[in-house]
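> example.struct
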């Protein structure tokens, strides 16, 4: 038996991630070798709307970002000035956050509301809203979701997307790779190899499923609950294999231009936005995230300092001025992305009308390492916009950012009453 298990493990590790039978205490003595692994990626169905999230590792200068006056007549601020002509297409929020602390070590909770270190015993782990939506409504497009942006550790990438099993979704890190993913078809030989891989994984999945069913008749109640979770994971893998097979013989959309060259995270930002817009426009995906991390290099904007060191500005005027230049660049291209979406007809409206676009950060102030008062802009999605909303409340009256995520999920056709640390819904 052990050699069979080892053979399965080898074959599936060559393809990527693994899915293993849980440890069952009631059978541990008798079945210490009853473990198998197989490749596991997720997929599910999709709704009619779209969702995009853009996350920044180091936040924005709050004094230059937030207006002073709430409501429709809010003042134009330094950092929001690139969005002034889009005022009626977006809402600025202050006071929404997750009520957690950790500075840089909490920035990854931006789209989940849950620290990775505290997610182990939670049913949904620290799954982020994009991956939650991809599970529920992602199987009618070639890519259930696209994660794009910076790779690296706590100061390299903002670690924007996480699965419910606590695994960071690695981002596509450059325009060339994203272009190939969207527009370059596999060779006939590669398609044949993928078909063989799918058959092999389906065969192993069937064997592991039968093994787990046999164990379920021999375990106690506690271990049966573990197996029920495992069967859920198996069904997720079955959906993914079905999705992969469904698109295997479908040609990708024609490329609108030549494959772009990779430059750096500053100069590549406009092209990454353009490719995400094209992914939505061609219906290759309806869910996407973009990370702007610590590898966003100020030197490419003529600033001879590191992004992270600038964030700890100590109220020095020159450092703050450089940060505002960096942040304005980011917000300017976010605004151009919104304009790009608004220029594409989609039914009776535009692509922006059907796409909820969230822009912000999991850190409020990089200088003081706070995770409160997160800088947030929500655009498009069919919402009534044009306001600065200052959300009041503390303690039991606090309105979590995850309440907004509940509403965003419902906009995507996912009926849910909760997400992360939500206490209700907020529209």
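> example.seq
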């Amino acid at each position: 038996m052990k050699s069979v298990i080892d053979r399965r493990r080898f074959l599936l590790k060559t393809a990527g991630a693994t899915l293993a039978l849980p440890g069952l205490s009631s059978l541990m003595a008798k079945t210490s070798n009853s473990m198998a692994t197989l490749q596991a990626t997720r997929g599910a169905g999709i709704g009619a709307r779209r969702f995009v999230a853009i996350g920044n590792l180091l936040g924005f200068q709050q004094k230059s970002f937030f207006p002073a006056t709430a409501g429709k007549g809010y003042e134009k601020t330094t950092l929001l000035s690139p969005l002034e002509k889009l005022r009626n297409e977006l809402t600025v929020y202050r006071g929404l956050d997750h009520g957690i602390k950790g500075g840089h070590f909490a920035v990854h909770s931006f789209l989940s509301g849950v620290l990775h270190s505290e997610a182990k015993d939670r049913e949904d782990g620290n799954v982020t809203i994009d991956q939650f939506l991809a599970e529920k409504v992602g199987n009618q497009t070639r890519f259930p979701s696209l994660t794009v942006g910076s790779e690296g550790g706590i100061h390299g990438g903002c670690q924007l997307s996480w699965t419910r099993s606590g695994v960071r979704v690695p981002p596509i890190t450059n325009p060339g790779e994203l272009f190939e993913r969207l527009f370059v078809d596999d060779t006939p030989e590669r398609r044949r190899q993928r078909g063989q891989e799918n058959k092999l994984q389906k065969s192993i999945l069937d064997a592991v499923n039968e093994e787990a069913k046999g164990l379920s008749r021999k375990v106690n109640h506690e271990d049966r609950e573990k197996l029920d979770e495992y069967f859920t994971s198996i069904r997720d893998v079955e959906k993914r294999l079905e999705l992969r097979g469904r698109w295997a013989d479908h040609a990708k959309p024609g490329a609108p231009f030549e494959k772009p060259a990779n430059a750096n995270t500053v100069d590549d930002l406009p092209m990454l936005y353009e490719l995400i817009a094209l992914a939505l426009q061609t219906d290759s995906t309806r869910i996407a995230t973009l990370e702007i991390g610590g590898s966003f290099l100020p030197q490419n904007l003529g600033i001879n300092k590191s992004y992270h060191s600038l964030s700890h500005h100590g109220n020095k005027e020159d450092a703050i001025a450089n940060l505002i230049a960096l942040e304005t660049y980011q917000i300017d291209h976010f605004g151009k992305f919104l304009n790009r979406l608004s220029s594409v007809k989609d039914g009776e409206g535009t692509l922006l009308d059907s796409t909820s676009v969230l822009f912000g950060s999991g850190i409020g102030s990089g200088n003081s390492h706070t995770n409160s008062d997160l800088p947030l802009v929500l655009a498009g999605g069919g919402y009534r916009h044009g306001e600065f909303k200052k959300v009041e409340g503390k303690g039991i009256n606090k309105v979590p950012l995850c309440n907004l995520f509940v509403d965003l999920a419902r906009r995507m056709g996912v009926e849910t009453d909760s997400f992360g640390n939500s206490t209700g819904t907020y529209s």
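> remarks
The first strand starts at residue 50 and ends at 56.
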